[in-house]
């Protein structure tokens, strides 16, 4: 898909530059051409962006001021919605680097009755094929992917990009348990495992993070930023996602609603309940986007 390749080129350009563009032009003829701060005569799509000081929140705000479609016949409305959905994530590395922070986006698929897995821990697949493809697009746009050790042990995920084109993210795991590269796909020398000192070294990169009794997730994010990782896509499980949420270490939640009901199982969130509705966790901006025949909630959190 041409506009997906354009998004990857925008991401790569913004990863390497320190100069914020005021406009981006896309020519999608025989060869795809993406140019910055220029308006070639044969461009089909021209994006005018807000000034980089437009918001302090970076990723959370849509920097797109105006999107001009020069040739309506070549780019359809559905492709434009797709492009606009993923565009903000191509900016994350640029703003994260400037602010010295790592943006965190948490994604999971839940049943209609609020479960992310059955009582046996089975979760393949709660969401639909569009949701899986979406997760792979987000993996390609973010610098890193993070899961809890429980998910590695239960699902043995590969945590790479297979369903779309794009770069593989750096794998990040939180947990103190023994995870051998001979048993788990995601364990390799470049995988960062955040753990306390009790975990012996293995075939991965160990990063110290004390557990008292929870890991400090703001500290984890700042350690990622120190390593040049400025956006991380968090793919569960329940304990990991809930810790990010309750520690206010999340910038965005992407919650896929599957059209399944399973009665009991692992709840999407597990933390001690909030007693008054007025204290409930709410969002600074929110939208629902279609995912094939299902739907995804995308909400930004105040940090
Ligand atoms: N539906 C979906 O989208 C989806 C996505 C992912 C996973 N899942 C399902 O979720 C289930 C796994 O969820 P889970 O909640 O059991 O496991 P999890 O969140 O993947 O892993 C929990 C472990 O991660 C470590 N951990 C992560 N954050 C921590 C924190 N802030 N403080 C302390 N420890 C932290 C701890 O490891 P140590 O104890 O080793 O320190 C903890 O025991 C599986 O059944 C999986 O299939 C579903």
Explain what this protein looks like in three dimensions:
- There is one protein chain.
- β1 and β2 (32-36) form a beta hairpin.
- The chain has two domains: 2-96, no CATH class; 101-300, Dihydrofolate Reductase, subunit A, CATH 3.40.430.10.
- The chain has 303 residues and is an alpha/beta fold.
- The strands form three sheets. It has a nine-stranded mixed β-sheet with strand order 10-9-8-7-11-5-12-15-14, sandwiched between helices. Strands 2-1-3-4 form a four-stranded antiparallel β-sheet, with helices on one face. The chain has a two-stranded antiparallel ribbon with strand order 6-13.
- α1 runs parallel beside α2.
- 25% of the residues lie in helices and 25% in strands.
- It has helices spanning 2-16, 77-90, 92-99, 129-141, 149-155, 217-226, 238-246; strands at 23-28, 32-36, 45-49, 64-69, 103-110, 115-117, 144-148, 170-174, 192-195, 205-208, 231-234, 252-257, 266-267, 285-291, 294-300.
List the helices and strands and how they pair.
Blueprint: H1 2-16, E1 23-28, E2 32-36, E3 45-49, E4 64-69, H2 77-90, H3 92-99, E5 103-110, E6 115-117, H4 129-141, E7 144-148, H5 149-155, E8 170-174, E9 192-195, E10 205-208, H6 217-226, E11 231-234, H7 238-246, E12 252-257, E13 266-267, E14 285-291, E15 294-300
Parallel strand pairs: 5-11, 5-12, 7-8, 7-11, 8-9, 9-10
Antiparallel strand pairs: 1-2, 1-3, 3-4, 6-13, 12-15, 14-15
NADP nicotinamide-adenine-dinucleotide phosphate binds at residues 108-109, 116-117, 121, 123, 126, 147-151, 154-155, 174-177, 211, 214-215, 217, 235-240, 243, 266.
């Amino acid at each position: 898909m041409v506009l997906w390749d354009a998004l990857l080129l925008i991401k790569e350009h913004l990863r390497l530059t320190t100069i914020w563009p005021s406009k981006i032009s896309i020519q999608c003829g025989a060869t795809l051409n993406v140019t910055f701060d220029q308006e070639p005569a044969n461009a089909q799509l021209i994006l005018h962006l807000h000034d980089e000081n437009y918001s302090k929140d970076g990723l959370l705000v849509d920097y797109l001021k105006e999107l001009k479609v020069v040739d309506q016949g070549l780019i359809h409305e559905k492709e434009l919605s797709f492009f606009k959905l993923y565009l903000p994530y191509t900016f994350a590395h640029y703003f994260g680097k400037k602010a010295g922070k790592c943006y965190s986006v948490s994604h999971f698929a839940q049943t209609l009755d609020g479960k992310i897995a059955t009582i046996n821990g089975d979760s393949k697949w709660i969401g639909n094929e569009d949701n899986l493809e979406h997760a792979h697009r987000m993996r390609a746009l973010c610098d890193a992917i993070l899961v809890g050790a429980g998910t590695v042990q239960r699902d043995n995920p590969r945590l790479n990009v297979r369903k779309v084109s794009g770069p593989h993210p750096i794998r990040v795991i939180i947990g103190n348990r023994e995870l051998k590269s001979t048993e788990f796909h995601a364990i390799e020398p470049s995988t960062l495992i955040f753990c306390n000192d009790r975990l012996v070294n293995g075939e991965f990169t160990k990063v110290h993070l004390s557990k008292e009794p929870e890991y400090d997730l703001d500290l984890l994010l700042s350690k990622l930023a120190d390593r040049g990782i400025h956006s991380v896509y968090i793919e569960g499980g329940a304990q990991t996602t809930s810790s990010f949420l309750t520690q206010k270490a999340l910038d965005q939640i992407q919650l896929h609603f599957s059209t399944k009901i399973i009665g009991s199982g692992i709840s999407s969130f597990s933390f001690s309940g909030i007693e008054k509705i007025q204290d409930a966790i709410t969002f600074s901006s929110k939208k629902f986007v279609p995912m094939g025949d299902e739907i995804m909630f995308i909400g930004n959190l105040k940090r």
